């Protein structure tokens, strides 16, 4: 028995990896990649080389731009690649038109030309800050495509149309090559996409259910809830890519987004109930009354079922059990909160089932827009505008022969970094990847490319570094380096049909490339730099202002819109809070989570008041609450207790009793969250 056991352990990959030095283990992405990572790297490398060879066969003047496009649009999923390719083509076409317009408008006035170009690129970067996903990339692509074409046509403005057509041809060629290889490597995308979406939805439901159960039992820290929120927000932004892989016309993505929005609502409501049970007014009585509900609901959530239909049946049976409980009448406001939580679980499961089983002619739509950061958009636009003007000034003063290339590289780097949440942080690995790219490009340009005499040799020469770059792109720790390495390697070596870069041309081009990255990082640090502290203050003020506005009769913010905006802002801050003290981050997180829960209750009260289904006395009490809420005075001088008393003792029709319990539960939760003890806990 000893021999086989020892042999099995000796061949265990984890045991073998543990014996290696730490610096070798860090390279496991290179010597022991997963099959999916290796397939992605090899597929993309072949697509890039194929686009380069086709561009050279077509005798295009700058074939190196085709493989750059391949690396730009290549993504881990087919849907992401399709989305990025679509917006890249659209941005290229619009950028080509803008470049021709600028050249035609300022043919002999370089100062006016570069001022107009800087304003245009600044406008594109500012607009991209207000958009999501690859729509933002398409807009910044419009800006740097304009710069690349316009600077390339400065010396020969009469040929700007030819240059524009050539640049567009490279983009389309790269997109087609990447799509062709992806289709060959990933046939039958739709069934796999549906299975993957279902698995991710059930995984998100399981993780959220565990978090909700921990919240109700008082076992969870805010940091854990922040992680769960981050996963839900990231998943929500990727649903549209899964839609592109599925059958056209199905509402699978809309139902998936509705399920994720329901999970956000579950977290917010569970957070409020947990605060109610852990402290504040009548905490001991609330805990005693809630024991049965917590026990039943946590047992359901921790079950870990994978069949949404079976889980939905269990929810229905539990709802029937709760309706028959006599204890429900002893604490109606608290009971209503748990009934609402259970109904939320059932709603999420129904949306998951609808996503798994699409029906024809489904008219369901679900869209949630994220928060628009107007101030940061303005800062991003001003920063990009100043960078282009500064680069033009450098060219004007130094008369550098590579000045046009420097400006085009700078516009390209700015476009690639402008859509990042924190370009300063993203710029450092981007520059390091550029250094690796320059080093490998030096070896290829000086010793390998001069010895190549056939296309087959070029394939073998580029396949190894491109495959390594593809593997690095799939590893989280090296993805930032691979971002610049993969795209700019073919640009630096510049393979051509009739010649090659000599040493001087290569070094000048590489210097322009590296200087453009350094110049971009410098401007990001000096011109209205991104500050997480000021961003947190702006977000806190925005949340407080929006929270008060939820009570207005003309306000139409839905619960899902409110939660998505708050969660997105909170997750962004958590991702960029490395330099912020941990206690400050936790204090801010508690305040944001509290605001999310308060907002849900205020929206529910506003909607009930708008329906006007309750008696006049109750409607007047709710109108008083909403008016004082907008003034920021809802928690003063026992206002909430007085309003609760009016609502509780006002006679209502039997059919309106459930509506009144909803109102009482919301007022009860708001009173708990606004109590001095809870305010201090959220701001400590």
Automatic annotation (TrEMBL):
The keyword Transmembrane helix applies. The keyword Membrane applies. It comes from the Bacteria. InterPro entries: PHBA_efflux_AaeB/fusaric-R. The chain crosses the membrane at residues 38-58, 111-131, 136-155, 170-190, 373-393, 399-418, 430-449, 480-498, 504-528. One of its GO terms (cellular component) is plasma membrane. One of its GO terms (molecular function) is transmembrane transporter activity. Keywords: Membrane, Transmembrane, Transmembrane helix. This is p-hydroxybenzoic acid efflux pump subunit AaeB. The gene is aaeB.
């Amino acid at each position: 028995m000893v021999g086989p056991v020892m042999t099995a352990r000796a061949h265990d990959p984890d045991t073998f990896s543990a014996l290696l030095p730490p610096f070798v283990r860090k390279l496991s992405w290179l010597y022991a990649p997963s099959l999916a990572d290796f397939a992605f790297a090899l597929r993309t490398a072949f697509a890039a080389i194929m686009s380069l060879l086709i561009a050279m066969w077509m005798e295009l003047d700058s074939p190196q731009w085709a493989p750059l496009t391949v690396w730009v649009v290549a993504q881990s999923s087919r849907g992401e690649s399709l989305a990025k390719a679509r917006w890249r083509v659209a941005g290229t076409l619009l950028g080509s038109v803008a470049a021709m317009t600028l050249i035609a408008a300022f043919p002999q006035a370089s100062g006016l030309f570069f001022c107009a170009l800087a304003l245009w690129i600044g406008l594109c970067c500012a607009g991209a800050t207000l958009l999501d996903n690859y729509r933002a990339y398409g807009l910044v692509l419009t800006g740097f495509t304009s710069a690349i074409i316009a600077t390339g046509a400065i010396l020969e403005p009469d040929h700007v149309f030819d240059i524009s057509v050539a640049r567009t041809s490279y983009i389309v060629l790269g997109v087609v090559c990447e799509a062709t290889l992806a289709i060959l490597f990933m046939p039958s995308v739709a069934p796999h996409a549906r299975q993957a979406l279902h698995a991710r939805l059930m995984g998100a439901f399981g993780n959220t259910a565990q978090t909700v159960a921990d919240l109700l039992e008082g076992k969870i820290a805010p940091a854990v809830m922040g992680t769960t929120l981050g996963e839900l927000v990231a998943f929500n932004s990727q649903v549209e890519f899964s839609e592109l892989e599925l059958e056209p016309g199905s509402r699978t993505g809309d139902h998936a987004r509705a399920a994720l929005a329901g999970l956000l609502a579950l977290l917010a409501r569970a957070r409020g109930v947990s605060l109610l049970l852990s402290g504040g007014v009548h905490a001991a009585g609330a805990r005693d009354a809630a024991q049965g509900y917590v026990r039943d609901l946590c047992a359901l959530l921790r079950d870990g079922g994978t069949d949404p239909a079976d889980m939905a049946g269990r929810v229905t049976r539990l709802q029937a059990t709760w309706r028959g409980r006599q204890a429900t009448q002893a604490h109606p406001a608290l009971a209503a909160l748990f009934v609402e939580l259970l109904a939320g679980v059932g709603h999420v499961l129904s949306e998951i089932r609808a996503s798994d089983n699409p029906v024809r002619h489904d008219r369901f739509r679900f869209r949630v827009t994220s928060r628009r950061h107007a101030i940061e958009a303005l800062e991003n636009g001003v920063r990009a505008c100043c960078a282009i003007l500064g680069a033009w000034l450098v060219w004007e003063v130094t008369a550098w022969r590579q000045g046009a290339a420097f400006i085009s590289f700078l516009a390209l780097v700015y476009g690639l970094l402008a859509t990042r949440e924190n370009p300063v942080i993203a710029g450092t690995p981007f520059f390091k990847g550029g250094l690796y790219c320059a080093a490998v490009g030096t070896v290829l340009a000086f010793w390998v490319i001069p010895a190549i005499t056939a296309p087959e040799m070029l394939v073998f020469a580029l396949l190894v570094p491109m495959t390594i770059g593809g593997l690095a792109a799939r590893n989280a720790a090296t993805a930032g380096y691979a971002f610049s390495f993969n795209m700019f390697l073919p640009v630096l070596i510049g393979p051509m049909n009739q010649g090659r870069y000599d040493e001087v041309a290569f070094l000048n081009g590489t210097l322009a490339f590296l200087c453009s990255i350094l110049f971009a990082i410098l401007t990001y640090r000096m011109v209205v730099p991104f500050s997480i502290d000021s961003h947190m203050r702006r977000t806190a003020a925005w949340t407080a202002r929006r929270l008060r506005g939820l009570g207005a009769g003309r306000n139409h913010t839905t619960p899902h819109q409110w939660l998505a905006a708050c969660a997105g802002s909170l997750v962004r801050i958590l991702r960029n809070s490395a330099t912020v003290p941990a206690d400050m981050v936790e204090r801010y997180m508690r305040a944001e989570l509290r605001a999310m829960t308060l907002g849900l209750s205020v929206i529910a009260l506003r909607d009930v008041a708008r329906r006007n289904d309750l008696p006049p006395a109750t409607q007047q009490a709710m109108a008083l609450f909403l008016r004082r809420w907008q003034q920021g005075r809802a928690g003063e001088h026992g206002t909430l207790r007085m309003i609760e008393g009016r609502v509780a003792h006002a006679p209502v029709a039997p059919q309106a009793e459930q509506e009144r319990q909803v109102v009482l539960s919301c007022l009860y939760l708001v009173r708990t969250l606004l109590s001095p003890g809870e305010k201090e806990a959220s701001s400590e």
